[in-house]
What does this fold into?
Amino acid sequence: MKIIKKMQKFWENESGMGVVEIVLIIIVLVGLVVIFKKQITSMVNSILAKMTSQANQI
It folds into this structure.
């Protein structure tokens, strides 16, 4: 009976849920960056090129 009560207490304990949720969000974000790496790189390069050309005009 003690083991069952300990298991129920462990199952109902939600103190670590915040950490698990944050880790899952980070994993999803890293996955998206890996998937869209080429698009992100080209977008950043395009923005930097526009900034450089407009800075040279001033």
About this structure: The mean pLDDT is 87. Helices lie at 2-12, 17-35, 37-57.
